[in-house]
Design goal:
The chain has helices at residues 34-49, 68-85, 94-101, 143-148, 178-187, and strands at residues 2-6, 11-18, 21-29, 58-62, 89-92, 106-116, 119-128, 132-134, 139-142, 156-161, 170-172, 191-192. With 205 residues, it is α/β, with parallel strands linked by helices. Helix 1 (34-49) crosses helix 2 (68-85).
Length: 205
């Protein structure tokens, strides 16, 4: 059974997945710091299901980009579980998984998420109806500028999170990535060394 953790945005996601069966899934809005929520919620899930943490055979975690502080919380918990149980850890990048959710669309995709400081994190992708591939590196743009320039992406499917952009080609992605991220990470074998696993941060530290 895998534990999957997603803390990149205002929605924290935790899932327990056994093969293709989702044994448990919890999605929470950020009412308090994730550091105060995540361990208690993990305990609640295991207690409610009558399961032992020893059943975990691997961990999957979102490494960003996203909220740097929240990502560090998720990564810290994931690495602690990996070390304490001697199980592998897999890590995916948030925008890649968001784009992959819409892989059945054929054409260009723009994924844009709220990066804080009134800025958006962006990346462009191309989809052939089965797979998605990045077209660009990550970029940062002022949210106000993105709204003004949204017309230049008229030929794209735009997937946004927490940006309040509008248009006929805009989809608001609201779900956490704990389940989709799990399947994506295992499909592409995104195994990491927990000693060197760090969040994807787009601004200078």
């Amino acid at each position: 059974m895998f534990l999957s953790i997603d803390t990149y945005s205002e929605n924290m996601g935790i899932a327990l997945i056994n093969g293709h069966h989702i044994a448990a899934r919890l999605s929470l809005s950020k009412t308090k710091p994730f550091s105060e929520l995540i361990v208690g919620k993990l305990d609640d899930i295991f207690n409610d299901l009558g399961l032992s943490a020893d059943l975990i055979s691997g961990v999957v975690v979102n490494k960003g980009p996203g909220s740097y502080t929240a990502l560090r919380v998720g990564l810290s918990v994931a690495k602690t579980v990996s070390f304490s149980l001697s199980v592998p850890i897999y890590a995916y990048e948030s925008l890649d998984v968001i784009a992959y959710r819409y892989r059945l669309y054929r054409g260009k995709i723009l994924v844009a998420i709220n990066g804080g400081q009134k800025e958006a994190f962006l990346r462009e992708y191309i989809s052939d109806g089965k797979e998605t591939e990045p077209l660009t590196d990550y970029s940062i743009e002022k949210i106000s500028r993105l709204r003004e320039d949204i017309e230049k992406y008229k030929d794209y499917l735009i997937i946004e999170k927490n940006l309040d952009t509008f248009g006929k080609n805009v989809i608001k992605d609201i779900d956490d990535l704990s389940v989709d991220g799990f399947f994506y990470a295992l499909k592409y074998d995104l195994k990491e060394d927990p000693l060197f696993l760090q969040p994807v941060y787009l601004r200078p530290v």
